[in-house]
Specification:
By secondary structure, the protein is an alpha/beta fold. It has 2 domains: 1-240 and 355-536, FAD/NAD(P)-binding domain; 247-350, Succinate dehydrogenase/fumarate reductase flavoprotein, catalytic domain (Flavocytochrome C3, Chain A, domain 1, Alpha-Beta Complex), CATH 3.90.700. 30% of the residues lie in helices and 20% in strands. It is built from 13 helices and 27 strands. The strands form 8 sheets. A 5-stranded parallel sheet has the order 8-4-3-12-21, with helices on both faces. A 5-stranded mixed sheet has the order 22-20-14-26-27, covered by helices on one side. Helix 5 (223-230) crosses helix 13. It is globular. The two termini are 35 Å apart.
């Protein structure tokens, strides 16, 4: 099954195609270039508009005195709630420090202590200070800046902006040998074209736009995961959607990307209060406000449901130097009429990070030959049921290097794609808003069989709203629809509460579910699933 689209009107070629310009995509492109291979970097908007630039949190790595990869591993496994892949976690924490040093060598500048040493802070779930920040709460922007500068200085990395990737191209043996994409703009490469390569790396970021409220930018419609599904690749852990507990509440009617209040704010001592002024996280978890994100998000939703409130409050008035430590957050609050130095900040959970994605091995290979995935698009197993704070940027750095090395070692010759008569599908973009609202209501922080089945039924009705007019909005909506389907299927199948998957009708964590759910979209449009034993 493929997206309904016009036939390609132009062709491009490179040794490797990298789709996405966040930390995973940019680092992969740079690492591939160290092996002398040419790169075509495809990005959906401008090259500097990926999710990475919005990251207010930092990068976790065992760089401080008294810290070690083993301790970082333990914290990651605790947050992952029994579903982390131990081998993947060991790769992440052991190769992480060197990956960060390489990022610094590429020009990234991190905050320093008065002594000149890199300043290390703590975030939820970490028992050591191991988080690097840049510009206080602008780490993502600094990482993006440094990597982009290196990419722009390399003439053998061709960047194609404003390009939405559509579907994978395959050769006679079924290996991926390129992609189709749509470029918005005038020139020699506008409209739908095809890009041929010897390997394709998906690094398209998250899928937060499946939900009505999210911290993700508007481009985060899960295009890479949806492409991989249609190409026959397996996805895993997609039921584990992390909802960031503290997103600036702007009113019930607001939709799309919402301003994030970084977890680092709670790391500096901020309090969560309900309408009566009670610190409800005290007694709810030994780490109180510094508990893992899923614990905090669930506690907030419970308190909101108990009191009928639409949000809770974040109190930062007692934090010294708040404006210097969190300039971006301070400016965002002030822009919405809230002075955090004298007022409480209204916050509520919103979709933030997909712990699951396209299932990959330790070298980023998917179940389809020639197709790799990295960063939030991938499920490497490092996050398990819940990502530990600030492990996401680190994952992009570490596994991009492994992908590049594997491609350089095993890259095949160019091959010719074959035309296949696959069925096509396209939804009308008018259903997008209903889809997002339905997913937020029934498959958000708190779930049950009743809510999930109702959402399934609501989405099933949308299938009749097909479109014969291909456009970016229709392609994105169709991607979101297919992603919503696979999320709902996994959320229904996992009859337990674990990590960021909370089932009100199955509130306990079950040892019987210490396994990973993998799903696949078959050529005829049906779904198949199986479980994988988790080794940890």
């Amino acid at each position: 099954m493929k997206l309904l689209a016009p036939k390609p009107g132009w062709t491009a070629r490179a040794d490797v195609i990298v789709v996405g310009s966040g930390v995973a995509g940019l680092t992969t492109a740079l690492q591939i270039r160290t092996f002398g291979l040419s790169v075509l970097l495809v990005t959906k908007a401008r090259v500097d508009e990926g999710s990475t630039r919005w990251a207010q949190g930092g990068i976790a790595a065992a760089l401080g005195p008294g810290d070690s990869p083993d301790q970082h591993e333990k914290d990651t496994l605790v947050a992952g709630a029994g579903l982390c892949d131990l081998a993947a976690v060991k790769v992440l924490v052991s190769e992480g420090p060197e990956a960060v040093r390489k990022l610094i060598a590429r020009g990234a500048v991190f905050d320093k202590e008065a002594t000149g040493e890199i300043a290390l802070t703590r975030e939820g779930g970490h028992l050591r200070n191991r988080i690097l920040h840049a510009g206080g709460d602008a780490t993502g922007a600094e990482v993006s800046r440094a990597l982009l500068a290196a990419v722009r200085n390399d003439p053998d990395i061709e960047v194609v902006e404003h390009a939405l990737v559509l579907d994978a191209l395959k050769n006679a043996s079924g290996a991926v040998c390129g992609v189709t994409l749509h470029v918005i703009g005038a020139g020699t490469r506008d409209g739908v074209g095809q890009a041929m390569a010897r390997a394709v790396v998906l690094a398209t970021g998250g899928l937060g736009q499946v939900f009505a409220q999210t911290t993700n930018p508007s481009v985060s419609t899960g295009d890479g995961v949806a492409l991989a599904l249609r190409a026959g690749a397996e996805v895993a852990d997609v039921e584990f959607i992390q909802f960031h507990p503290t997103v600036l509440w702007l009113g019930d009617a607001t939709e799309g990307q919402q301003p994030l209040i970084s977890e680092a704010v709670r790391g500096e001592g901020a309090y969560l209060l309900d309408d009566s002024g009670t610190r409800f996280m005290v007694g709810a978890h030994p780490l109180a406000e510094l508990a893992p994100r899923d614990v905090v998000a669930i506690a907030i939703m419970r308190r909101m449901n108990e009191t009928g409130a639409h949000h809770v409050w974040l109190d930062v008035r007692h934090i010294e130097g708040f404006t210097e430590r969190f300039p971006t957050i301070y400016a965002s609050c002030m822009a919405h009429g809230i002075d955090p130095l004298s007022q409480l900040i209204p916050v509520s959970p919103a979709s933030h990070y997909a712990s699951g994605g396209v299932r990959v091995d330790l070298d980023g290979r998917t179940s389809v030959e020639g197709l790799y995935a990295c960063g939030e698009t991938a499920c490497s197993g490092v996050h398990g049921a819940n990502r530990l704070a600030s492990n996401s940027l680190l994952e992009g750095l570490v596994f991009s290097a492994r992908i590049a090395a594997d491609i350089a070692k095993n890259i095949p010759d160019f091959s010719q794609q074959i035309d296949t008569q696959e069925s096509t599908f396209l939804l009308d973009p008018s259903v997008r808003k209903f889809l997002q609202g339905s997913m937020s209501r029934g498959a958000g922080v708190l779930r049950s069989a009743t809510s999930l089945h109702k959402t399934e039924q609501e989405l099933e009705v949308l299938k009749i709203s097909t479109s014969t007019l291909p456009c970016v909005e229709a392609w994105e909506t169709t991607n979101l629809y297919q992603l919503a389907q696979v999320i709902l299927r996994s959320a229904l199948e996992r009859e337990e509460t674990r990590g960021s998957h909370w089932r009100e009708d199955f509130p306990a964590t079950s040892p019987a579910w210490s396994k990973r759910i993998l799903q696949k979209l078959e050529k005829n449009g049906s779904w198949s699933s199986h479980v994988e034993k988790v080794i940890n």
